[in-house]
Every structure is written in structure tokens, then in C-alpha cells.
Amino acid sequence: MPQPEDTAHSNGEQLVAEEPRDETSRVEHLPEDGRFRIADGSGGHDVAVLEYDDRTPGVWDLHHTWTDPARRGRGLADQVVHTALDAARTAGVRVVPTCSYVADWLSGHPDYQDLVAARP
Asked: Which CATH superfamily is domain 4-115 in?
């Protein structure tokens, strides 16, 4: 089955299949900024990010993901999305996957479909 990274996004960008996760990466949740991130070893530079909007009570709009081009293909985006969805489950919130990467990721992970909120 193709991984989300194997698909083309709405902007026409073709994504490359990611390798297994870099287990040394640690995802941080920065709720005051509405984002999850993986920082480089010094902690000063983001190498992968998922941004969300939580203005609607009980709902996180997962609207943007980004991975440093030099670090793509290492499973970092997968790690950030997976961690964000686990955090959403723990927090008892639903998600709206407006980011195409997140929507693609969810299509390959049926065990997270229960988190998806109905779009207005």
C-alpha cells in the first residue's frame, strides 16, 4: 500500500517515500504556538513542523506541515503527525485535516479516523 509520502499533493509536488523514523528525533508540543516540532540537535532550528489552530473549542485544525528539505525522506513528517494525533486523542479533541499531508496520512491510518471532525 502506498504511503502518504508516495502521493502528489494538490500543489502538484510529488513526494518521495520516507525511510523509517529517525529514532533520535523528539517531537515537542508547543501549545502556546499551536505547533508540534522536531528541532535539530542544538534545539535552535526546526527540521519538521505541524501547525494547528485551536480557536474552535474541542477541535484542532491541522493546517500546515513542513520538513527541512535537507532532512526529507527520514520519516520526520510522519513522526510529527503521528505525535500530534496521539496528543489530540489524549486531549480529547477532534481534528480537521486541512493540510493535504495530514489528510493523506489519515487515509493510510484507519485507526485514527475517529479523531476526524465533520467539516462545517
From this structure: Gcn5-related N-acetyltransferase (GNAT) (3.40.630.30)
